[in-house]
Design a protein that fits this description.
The N terminus and C terminus are likely disordered. This protein is about 5% helix and about 35% strand. With about 450 residues, the chain is mainly β. The protein is globular and about 55 Å long.
């Protein structure tokens, strides 16, 4: 599991607006990078690191589009003791898998990180230290956490690609690493799994020796029927029945990139324009793509730094399209087109128009406010309705400063929330989690620094 480089100082969280914190919500947008601090009155849980220090974690949730956060605290460590900020790796049901650095001198070596599973509960939350996966090696984004329901059991699985064949052709074999809490003495196990019928090339032809590059993980189904989908947001999903003795990989291609995005295929981080999630009922996969409608684009022949700057710049013209497909997965089934909306057709409720005047477009009539296209991107699909959350540069600060919620079917701005100005949210930093359903309603008062 790879750790991200960051400053050793983790700032305290910014308090949520009055009234938002305790609103009941079935899921949250969770900032994957944690703060240092303590929530002693409510949902904190404690454990011990592999090096013997006490550690506590707690969660502060809010209704989207507000971003929820978590805090990690150790009375045995100074703030500089966290070489990198704690980071959420995966979430499922009432569980959160996160990592913390346990070596002050080594910042990015996964061997020197501890991995914990937090279980939310209104009265008795818990925190488990996992056996370290070393010498197995995998990235944060390769890892999935599954809540199995029975006797508080859970499983962790990671899928990594193997080297290309000797002739340079993409390798269809992968390494599968697994850990199961009910079989803790066995530690981590490994197994080679292969893809029987490759399908992604039929939709998106391969232009390199890399058949699949995981950018996100989704959980399909619940409990003993749970499966993992390792998603390459440019190409497709590798679905695996990781709980079975002899797991198999099934290839599910994603819809072909929109016409306006084909020039950017595999040229930058797909999180900027695409997202995928599983709904709360676990019976449907939801997918979205934002298509750039700009007349001037930087082509693939431009230098990489120029392309990256262009891709991250606010888009002035765009539209988005949603797709879905049912669970259980049937490989031959097609994706079902959902709704398509254009930024020029999205209206703003007058209440939001007054609160956030920088969202005003060229139409200055308050009765008909429209949403301008200062879009940074990084869409996140709601787990329970037809809302998408987008990162915006609304105050011309030079970085992402607002999350907006757009009702895709009604084409209206449903709400917005300001981001912590001390953090850079330009890169994808949020995940979705159901943990809010399992926490105590009395979350206490933060005492973070």
């Amino acid at each position: 599991m790879a750790a991200a480089s960051s400053s050793s100082t983790v700032p305290s969280p910014t308090p949520h607006p009055e009234g938002d914190v305790h609103d009941a919500t079935n899921w949250v947008l969770l900032d994957v990078l944690g703060y240092k601090g303590d929530y002693p009155k409510a949902n904190f849980a404690g454990s011990t690191t592999s090096t013997g220090e006490s550690i506590q974690v707690s969660f502060h949730t809010a209704r989207p589009p507000e971003v929820s956060h978590f805090c990690v605290y150790s009375p045995d460590l100074t703030p500089a003791g966290f070489a990198v900020p704690p980071k959420v790796i995966s979430a499922d049901s009432d569980l959160i898998l996160f990592r913390v650095s346990v070596c002050r001198r080594i910042r990015v070596t996964p061997r020197y990180c501890d991995y914990f599973v937090y279980r939310a509960h209104p009265r008795n939350p818990s925190l488990d230290l996992l056996p370290h996966p070393y010498p197995n090696s995998f990235r944060d984004r390769d890892v999935a956490l599954l809540s199995l329901g029975d006797d508080n059991e859970y499983a962790v699985a990671a899928l990594t690609r193997r080297y290309p064949d000797e002739d340079g052709m993409p390798n269809k074999e992968f390494n599968l690493y697994r850990y199961r809490s009910s079989k803790a003495p066995e530690g981590w196990t490994s197994k080679v799994v292969s893809l029987a019928e490759p399908l992604m090339d039929k939709v998106c032809p391969l232009d390199s020796a890399l058949y699949h590059d995981t950018t996100k993980v989704i959980i399909l189904g619940r409990g003993a029927l749970g499966m993992v989908g390792w998603v390459d947001l440019w190409r497709g999903i590798l679905v695996c029945n990781v709980l079975q003795q002899n797991p198999m990989l099934v290839d599910i291609p994603l819809p072909k990139p929109a016409k306006g995005n084909q020039i950017f295929y595999r040229k930058f981080c797909p999180h900027i324009i695409r997202d995928i999630t599983v709904n709360l009922l676990k019976d449907s996969i939801k997918y979205i793509e934002i298509e750039s409608l700009q007349t001037k684009v930087v082509g693939p022949d431009q230098p990489p730094d120029v392309r990256q700057k262009q891709c991250r710049a606010p888009s002035r013209a765009w539209k988005a399209t949603t797709w879905s497909r049912p669970i259980p997965i049937v490989p031959c089934e097609e994706w079902r087109a959902g709704c398509t909306f254009d930024v020029g057709n999205i209206s703003i409720d007058p209440m939001h128009f007054e609160l956030l005047p920088r969202l005003r477009g060229t139409n200055d009539n308050p009765a008909e406010p429209v949403l301008p296209a200062h879009l940074i991107g990084f869409p996140t699909i709601s787990m329970d309705d037809d809302v998408v959350y987008l990162l915006y540069n609304a105050y011309c600060t030079g970085q992402t400063d607002v999350v907006i919620a757009v009702d895709m079917r009604n084409q209206t701005l449903q709400g917005f929330a300001k981001l912590d100005a001390r953090r850079d949210f330009t890169l994808m930093r949020n995940c979705t989690s159901e943990i809010s359903k399992y926490l105590s309603k009395d979350e206490g008062t933060p005492e973070a620094s």
